Amino acid sequence: MQFPEYRGRRLRKNENLRRLVRETKLCVDDLVYPLFAVPGKSVKKPITVMPGQFQLSVDYIAREAREAHELGIPAVLLFGIPSKKDEQGTGAFAKDGIVQHAVKRIKNEVPDMLVITDVCLCEYTSHGHCGILEKGSVQNDTTLEVLAETALSQARAGADMVAPSAMMDGQIGAIREALDENALEEIPIMAYCAKYASSFYGPFREAAQSAPQFGDRKSYQMDPANSDEAIREISLDVSEGADIIMVKPALAYLDIIFRAKQEFDLPLAAYNVSGEYSMIKAAAQMGWLDEEKSMLESLTAIKRAGADIIITYWAKDLAKALRK
Ligand code: PBG
User: Fold this and answer.
1) For residue 164, what are the domain limits?
2) Which residue among 33, 35, 204, 276 is best mutated to probe the pocket of ligand 1, counting the most ligand atoms within 8 A of its Cβ?
3) Cα torsion angle, 7, 11, 15, 21, sign
């Protein structure tokens, strides 16, 4: 078909026509809302670099989960900031650890909310790396045991799903095995398979107080220049037992999301990370961008690229926008 027989503008004439032919629609069912748990009571500390997000004590986190539930959001993703960090990141798997505590509180007060826990050590280690250090470098296989211990303790606390994000080789297999051996074979794993060494995690590291104290994460997170490697990483995680695969960040990696969707038949999650959120927030605060429109366009793009699940700090705002 060619002009003048085909006129693309005919179907763009008004909102009803546009609604009829719209190919991608955002839906509250696809959303995961990340939350940051801190020790204490009645704590709701604004995260300056992520306007609208807070560090919350467990009483407030349960409240926030309830609000999200009432808006129809199916899941939260929990991160924890412990009162003390140490070399080995022991706070990650402590029975009375901050995330374990938050999980129990949410499951107790909002049992219908799906609770997913981030499995990593960077929030719990004094050096801020995602694994156990030896002579200044992150030890892969030693870290696997600690990650498995962490996932196990989160599942025992009541987590419905675990999401390993440390980018250690073999982490999905190690965690699957630990869960299975402990009668937790029904707990699914959402694997951060293709997680890039990205500058867009900057605001999160302030929020979670998890910036590495020396060096960077390039020896374990992926090089942003690589795409074939993402496919290899996802294949490995699938073979080790991933139930949901993830690409992270989202907006600068839409090609990776698209490829992953073409090549794998598992549910695909994309993490709309802190930097993607804060950039738009900052520009909106300056009056340079319309926040809601930019949010809707960004999240639609992530879904259009192929994401089935979107992890976003805008979950509540999007849920509200979709109700209008
Ligand atoms: C690591 C982790 C990070 C994020 C989620 N899990 C940070 C990192 O790898 O440095 C980033 C999320 C975001 O930027 O929103 N546990």
Assistant:
1) 25-322
2) 204
3) negative
